[in-house]
Amino acid sequence: MRPVLIIAVLVLVACGDDEGAGARDAEPTTDAGAMDGASDGATPDAAAPPPTPQPPRDAGPSEDAAPDDRLAWPNDESRATSDPWIVENHARIEVLRPRILGLSFRNGRTIDDMRALFASIFAAMREGSRRHGHRDARARPMLEPELAYAVDLTDRVAPDGWPYRNSTLYPREDPVEGTWGFDYEALFSASFAERYGIEDPDAPGRALTLCELSERGLVHEVWVYADADVPDVAAAEILTIQPVYDESGARLPGELARCAGNGCFDVDDEIPADCTRTLRIGWVNNTRGVGCYLESYAHGIERMGNGGHLPPLSAYWRDLAGFDLDDRYGLPFDSWYVCGGLPGHCLTYTSESSVTYATVPASGSIDPYVPTCGNAHFPPNARDPYDLDNEAPVLSTCETWRDGDVPMPVGRADWDRYRALAPDCTGAWLVWWWQHFPAHDDPTGAPATWPFLYW
């Protein structure tokens, strides 16, 4: 298998309800009892979320514009991730509404603070999943996340002299045994099940574990809302467990892939055997904004495309996202993530369709150079990582990828419209980038990217 670049970033340094189809009657109707030192537990996201940022002027119609008769997941036939139904109906799915379990560990922030940030992230994800939404006002989002449960795990009163912004319930390894000091294993434990406070409808009084929540389709992703700006244990931007599939989309027997996110679960983080489905655990820094979490999430998508456990996605991902520089141009590396470590710009465009490059592995020039859609750090005209500000356009086939592949100018003006929606990290670029992922009934014939998140 071809080696691929893995970008594992510590969150310590990273930028980083509309009615669901799941069983709503399984959600608690009152606040769960608080654990020692903690605030109230899980609450269904019944209260209306705070207002979200206004979409750009050319955003698609509001969801209230017409009845929504799109084929959605989850639904009455399929509620949990990795259901065979998702694979079998991949080409028919028009909208995905993943159910998020939000865990607030940040002392000094309210559960409504978490809801507000999540609502803004959801708005950007909806906009980003509108295929060519920047020029098609009729495009509908394929990704519409929902906050299914909001769990307050902050301290009512922190202990005297407590040095951290994250609460005493924030799961810390002591001592740290691997890459991550955040104790991911703890999230799957019975003690955390009690803190989630989500009752088993078949056994009143018993709280469901994270694996059980995943297996029943009540939770599809976990988002940790915490602080990385006061020294604390490190966590990953986003980690994922996911089944492994073959080229035909058949699930292979064996353990789940533990490196399906931006990095791997540590060996010491034991994932219980009753977790058999895709589960994504993201980390949202309370002091950062929408764009920084989009960047974290995008790194997880890149790893999903490059990881080899989803061959139907990998079949086009390297080409779409520019991870094929070795094959396309004969370079000794596969993407511009290799940039850095030398003075001056990594890339210098000598024309709209030619470039010189200076990297630690190699330097040289490419003529003609016509990039596709770039990656999470590199727009097609970027000179260095995170360069969203180069106003000079270059020719790119992103807009017409596998639909004629006609080179068109691409530059800062294209994604500037999303600066208000996702203003920090590479957020504005990512909204535009996501709009170029294959979607439902895509004219390229490529299978939509978004359902792969829940295979």
Please provide a written account of the structure.
With 455 residues, the protein is of the alpha/beta class. It folds into 2 domains: 24-319, no CATH class; 329-436, no CATH class. It is built from 9 helices and 13 strands. The protein has helices spanning 84-88, 111-128, 190-196, 210-215, 290-306, 311-320, 325-329, 412-415, 427-434, and strands spanning 42-44, 72-73, 95-96, 99-104, 146-152, 221-226, 238-241, 279-285, 347-351, 354-358, 363-366, 394-396, 408-410. Strands 1-5-4-6-8-7 form a 6-stranded mixed β-sheet. A 3-stranded antiparallel β-sheet has the order 9-10-11, with no helix packed on it. Strand 4 (99-104), helix 2 (111-128) and strand 5 (146-152) form a beta-alpha-beta unit. The longest helix is centred in the first third of the chain and has 18 residues, at 111-128. It is globular, with a radius of gyration of 22 Å. The relative contact order is 0.16.
Quick one: how many beta strands?
13
Structural class: alpha/beta
Question: What's the main sheet like?
Answer: 6 strands, mixed
Low-confidence stretches: 1-40, 46-63
Count of DSSP H/I helices: 9
